[in-house]
Structure formats: C-alpha cells, structure tokens
Design a protein that fits this description.
3 helices
C-alpha cells in the first residue's frame, strides 16, 4: 500500500476496506495470473521453436 496516504489508510481501516497485491507472471509479452499457465506456454513455445541454446 505504498501509494496510499496515511489519511486514506485510516479511512480504509475505519470502513473495513482492505487491499491485496496481485501476482502477475510474465513470459515474453504475455501475462498470466497462474504460474502453471506461464510455464505451460513457455514449454509449448520451446517445443515449437528450436532454441540456439539447445541446438549448440
């Protein structure tokens, strides 16, 4: 809650308002809410595209 002022934090507490941090996983230009989805896509793409690292 770095972007919340002290006054706003107090008002949140007073009204029972809470916040959460949402984790986003990035693979290249794609974003995923679930890590497994990012891993699955990365694995799929690596099977489709020969890698310079794997080929030598």
């Amino acid at each position: 809650m770095n972007d919340v002022s002290e006054e706003q934090r107090k008002m949140m507490e007073e009204h029972g308002i809470r916040s959460e941090t949402k984790v986003i996983y990035w693979y290249k230009e794609h974003s995923y809410e679930k890590l497994q989805h990012a891993l699955d896509y990365a694995a799929l793409e690596s099977r489709r595209t020969p890698s310079k690292i794997r080929s030598g």
